[in-house]
Write a structure and sequence with these properties.
By secondary structure, this protein is an all-beta fold. It is built from 2 helices and 33 strands.
Length: about 450
């Protein structure tokens, strides 16, 4: 019997101010792989990648919105770009029409890094401007360590390269300046004595750590790189952004989000501190800088933990969408706020900022069985602020297909020239088919004016 749980305190209305949905692309598999949405000059681009299991590599394409009443889109294939790039986290430099994709892997205890610089011109031509590579050995990253510390985890198979991968995230590209955010998880081999039948045997194992969290920084468009250490903490999903006065670096660690900052005039990175320690899951949302303010959005688990710790109750898998901001002149972060109140389960938030206007969109459901996942029926919700995040309107629904057993997910949102642009995948999950064989779903596009 399915245990159905509910958080319905009110019926969240459907906002009928959105344009009709238009199919503009398809996902790679089910709700996943719809692409990343970015503002580009006076239009939008959707960056998609496709993984080829036979060649073990990916291809990338950029879909550009044509600024015309029909809301048509043009797909621009990219050639000459290695298939192991982190297509999910491009760094954009609109002032110079550049896009940077990062890549990296660890082999033979050496970190092999790369960056590809593309030009996307006003007439929608894509050119590979430069490809850069650089290498760091284990000692350069971790210093001198004992012989049982290794960057590469011991090989599980001998018929394929023994590779590990760094955590790469959204970097920064400003003219000839480039930042690549990364985190390394090394491994420590150990042996433990076990007594069996009066004899002592040694069994081996592997533990995580030591760690390295930092950025690579180039001032000459990737010809040379300097490594800037931030901490020796585990920092998953690294991400950077820049406000008027500071560079920010974020990472998932210790059940929360840590941040570090550095003046744009130079100097060292500050010691990482917690933005939140609310058992955070940071998929989607991320950090967006606008003028002298950084806005951060994440999936938050604080109320689920309280529920789980209460007597005679089990967990439900309930995440909520949370938001927080910080101005350059602030000594600390402003009080965070839960945006998805009234929605029981939330997934993959997306945020966009334009001046004092902010929009956050996410997939979710007001009622579902315990421990749902993103393929379960859901709708798209959104919330807005018109005063820089000080106050927020209650969430509204964009879609209304949960009641039909339809999944609307992977929301991506962009706020441009006072108009909210929204993308999302929609389809029906087939429980009799393997997770990675759901097939492509349509990616729909809708828009509406930012609400008063």
């Amino acid at each position: 019997m399915i245990n159905r749980v509910s958080h319905v305190t009110r019926s969240i209305p459907v906002d009928d101010g959105w344009s009709p949905p238009v199919s503009v692309a398809s996902t790679e598999n089910g709700v996943a792989g719809g692409g990343g949405l970015y503002k580009w000059h006076d239009t939008l681009i959707l960056v998609q990648s496709r993984y080829d299991w036979s060649s073990k590599s990916s291809t990338c394409s950029i879909i550009v919105r044509n600024n015309e009443p029909s809301n048509s889109w043009t797909q621009l294939p990219i050639s000459g770009v290695p298939g192991d790039c982190a297509f999910y986290s491009p760094a954009l430099d609109q002032a110079n029409d550049r896009i940077m994709f990062e890549r990296g892997y660890i082999e033979s205890n050496r970190l092999q890094m790369g960056a590809i610089f593309l030009r996307l011109t006003v007439n929608n031509r894509i050119q590979v401007e430069a490809e850069r590579t650089w290498t760091m050995d284990q000692e350069s990253l971790l210093g001198r360590t004992s012989t049982n510390v290794t960057l590469n985890e011991p090989a599980a198979r001998t018929d394929r390269p023994n590779r590990d991968y760094p955590s790469l995230g959204v970097g920064i590209l400003e003219g000839s300046k480039a930042y690549v955010a990364f985190s390394i998880n090394a491994h420590t081999l150990f042996k433990t004595p076990v007594n069996y039948g009066g004899k002592t045997y040694m069994t081996g194992g592997v533990s995580d750590g030591p760690f390295y969290n930092g950025v690579f920084h180039s001032t000459d468009l990737g010809k040379t790189w300097q490594m800037e250490k931030i901490s020796d903490l585990d920092a998953g999903e690294p991400e950077m952004c820049r406000t008027k006065d500071y560079y920010y670096n974020f990472g998932m660690t210790g059940g929360g989000i840590r941040f570090s900052l550095k003046s744009v005039d130079g100097g060292s990175w500050s010691e990482p501190k917690f933005l939140t320690r609310t058992f955070t899951n940071r998929r989607g949302g991320g950090a967006v800088a606008e003028s002298d303010t950084v806005h951060v959005c994440w999936l938050d688990n604080r109320h689920e933990i309280k529920y789980w710790l209460s007597l005679a109750r089990s967990g439900r898998g309930n995440y909520e969408v949370a938001y927080c901001r910080r101005k350059d002149s602030d000594s600390s972060w402003r009080k965070d706020i839960i945006l998805s109140r009234g929605v029981m389960f939330a997934y993959s938030p997306s945020m966009s900022v334009e001046g004092d206007k902010i929009v956050v969109a996410w997939a979710g459901a007001q009622t579902a069985h315990a421990w749902p996942f993103e393929g379960d029926p859901s709708d798209i919700y959104y919330a807005t602020s018109k005063d820089g995040g000080k106050t927020w309107k209650k969430p509204l629904k964009v879609t209304d297909r949960f009641k039909d057993g339809i999944t609307s997910g992977s929301a991506r949102v962009a706020l441009q020239n006072g108009v909210i642009h929204l993308f999302y995948a929609q389809g029906k999950w087939d429980n009799d088919t393997q997770v990675n064989h759901q097939g492509g779903w349509p990616v729909y596009y809708q828009q509406r004016a930012f609400p008063d």
